[in-house]
Specification:
Largest sheet of chain A: none
Number of helices of chain B: 12
Radius of gyration of chain A: 19 Å
Strand content of chain A: under 5%
Strand order of the largest sheet of chain B: 6-7-8-3-9-10
Order of helices and strands of chain B: EEEHEEHEHHHEHEHEEHEHEEHEHH
Number of helices of chain A: 9
Structural class of chain B: alpha/beta
Shape of chain A: globular
Number of strands of chain B: 14
Order of helices and strands of chain A: HHHHHHHHH
Number of strands of chain A: 0
Largest interface: A-B, 28 and 33 residues
Strand content of chain B: 25-35%
Largest sheet of chain B: 6 strands, mixed
Radius of gyration of chain B: 24 Å
CATH superfamily of the largest domain in chain B: P-loop containing nucleotide triphosphate hydrolases
CATH architecture of the largest domain in chain B: 3-Layer(aba) Sandwich
Helix content of chain B: 25-40%
Oligomer: heterodimer
């Protein structure tokens, strides 16, 4: 299993596409957060976390894109045949890939938080603000919880992207699905059901729950929301692993 | 030793491989022949578990591929030269394969040297020619120093030097006692590389035999005769049931041996300038053997057939 994970790590680190996606995942929220720390005229004690997690939606999507790349490119480039020839147990391949991908995204998110909040904190202190980036507004919550939830959601996005890539075996299709469902499809579904049947499913759609979980004051228990998205992710992953096992390579 | 038994693979109602059984013995190169769409590549994919066969099995020295520990060290496969990510360098491509099986970096560099790609090992595969990709594919087969090698169209895109190198390499590997199965459409090349043949058509086994037996069995055989009294000899031979066809200053006789023709000419006092037994090539034998199994005909060959 260790050899397989090492092999998957080499695959991730030796492709320009995955490195560029990782760079965007880290750089976009860092740049926006740091710029705000330097130039926002009246920052509040919660704004750094808010900006980081709001702009972090791009990081979530890029995590998903990384997940798609990790598997769909193998199908489009034919390397999946060598992967399966090297390790005939496909479930093992799926688990190893998902695990390495999760570690990759976790490390990237940790890096973006350390760099973004580190520089932002430094900038705020130089401008004379004494609260840094860690707020104390909500006694039931803390900045740490938001940051950890953000990391968890990024990993889950990556795993959802990975599962979609394994199911569709096609990068453009999987990436389109990954972007359209949270940005468009869920909103339309919630709106339609609410308008036509007077049913409110706004708290039951997975991507909305995931995005809600990284708000400073989420609509519901933060970790229940993360867990709910995680259950969807697990279901999709099991389906994808079954398809990967049964379909011809 | 590769043992394929009763392998059947269907795609949406189309039977690509139909109850196929054959063996590939170690010690010599075995050619895997068949017309386009005959199921060669599907068979190879089923053998290593990439495609799921509906029934049947393939074993490598008695063990199914899925049960092999570190399969790359036991079976080296080249199914498509393009099976390398175009954005990754040749060396990195082999490095991830090596890491998967616990093979060291020195072995990666050694196989790159062996296939002649050392100088371009850090170049991206997308910038490789087909021949270079083919060499990289062969490097990936050699990486684990396997005892069984399966190669699908390995000479595609190789230059003459590359073809000769591969031919010598495969023969040497076979001489070392390894099992080598190679498919190719270049029958002249196959005639030089292979000693044994497995010939399939429409997913079914047509024959498995040595190259010599195959040409003897399937290729046309005739006797070419050049003589100043050829019409007299033709009449005598026709009486014996032979058929003579005029061809480039001589006559090609079929249905009679060179021995019989020589004796016939001698008994009639006919002077002979040439009396030579002729046999069709492996290509001729292949075309005859698979004539009823060819799925895709070109317009030209159909026209010639008429």
């Amino acid at each position: 299993m260790l050899n397989l994970m090492k092999s998957e790590f080499i695959k991730l680190r030796t492709l320009r596409s995955t490195l560029v996606a990782t760079f965007i995942l880290i750089a976009f929220p860092v740049v926006i957060t740091v710029l705000n720390a330097f130039f926002l005229t009246e920052p509040k004690d919660t704004f750094m976390i808010e900006i980081l997690t709001t702009t972090g939606f791009v990081s979530m999507l890029m995590s998903g894109v990384l997940g798609v790349f990790a598997i769909a490119q193998e199908y489009s480039q034919g390397t999946i045949r060598i992967t399966f020839a090297s390790t005939p147990l496909r479930t093992k391949v799926y688990v190893a890939k998902a695990f390495v991908l999760s570690l990759w995204v976790a490390f990237s998110v940790a890096l973006l938080q350390v760099i973004g909040l580190g520089i932002a904190s430094f900038a705020l202190k130089r401008r004379g603000f004494d609260f840094g980036v860690m707020y104390k507004q909500n006694p039931y919550d803390s900045a740490w919880q938001v940051l950890f939830a953000f990391g968890a959601v990024c990993i889950l996005f990556a795993l959802v992207g990975f599962a979609l890539g394994a199911l569709l075996r096609n990068s453009p299709g999987a990436i389109s699905t990954l972007i359209l469902v949270p940005l468009l499809v869920e909103g339309i579904l919630v709106g339609l059901l609410s308008a036509v049947f007077k049913i409110d499913i706004s708290r039951k759609v997975p991507f909305t729950a995931a995005l809600n979980s990284v708000q400073i004051n989420p609509d519901g228990s933060r970790w229940s929301l993360v867990g709910y998205f995680g259950i969807w992710c697990l279901g999709l992953s099991i389906l994808a692993a079954l398809f990967m096992k049964r379909r011809d390579a | 030793m590769i043992l394929v038994e009763n392998l059947t693979k269907r795609f949406a109602g189309v039977t690509a491989v139909d109850d196929l059984s054959f063996t590939v013995a170690p010690g010599h190169v075995t050619g895997f022949l068949g017309p386009n769409g005959s199921g060669k590549s599907t068979t190879m994919r089923c053998m290593i578990g990439l495609d799921h066969a509906q029934s049947g099995s393939a074993t490598f020295n008695g063990v199914p591929y899925s049960k092999l520990s570190q399969p790359l060290r036991r079976v080296g496969t080249l199914l498509d030269a393009g099976n390398a990510h175009s954005g990754r360098s040749a060396r990195n491509h082999l490095l991830w394969m090596a890491a998967n099986t616990g093979i060291g970096k020195s072995r990666v560099d050694a196989v790159l040297e062996q296939v002649g790609l050392s100088d371009v090992s850090r170049r991206r595969v997308g910038k490789f020619s087909l021949g270079m990709k083919q060499r990289l594919g062969i490097a990936s087969v050699l990486l684990g120093d396997p005892e069984v090698l399966i190669l699908d169209e390995p000479v595609n895109g190789l230059d003459p030097e590359g073809i000769r190198w591969l031919r010598d390499l495969l023969r040497d590997l076979a001489k070392e006692g390894r099992t080598v199965l190679v498919s190719s459409h270049l029958l002249s090349e196959m005639a030089l590389i292979a000693e044994e043949l497995v010939v399939i058509g429409q997913g079914k086994l047509i024959t498995q035999c040595s190259v010599g037996d195959f040409t003897t069995r399937f290729a046309k055989q005739w006797v070419r005769v050049v003589s100043p009294q050829i019409q007299a000899l033709k009449s005598l031979a026709t009486e014996k049931g032979a058929v003579g066809v005029d061809e480039q200053g001589g006559v090609n006789f079929s249905g009679i041996s060179a021995l019989q023709l020589g004796e016939l000419a001698a008994s009639a006092g006919i002077v002979l300038h040439e009396l030579s037994p002729q046999a069709g090539s492996l290509e001729d034998a292949f075309l005859d053997a698979t004539a009823s199994s060819v799925q895709f005909h070109s317009a030209q060959s159909e026209g010639l057939g008429k």
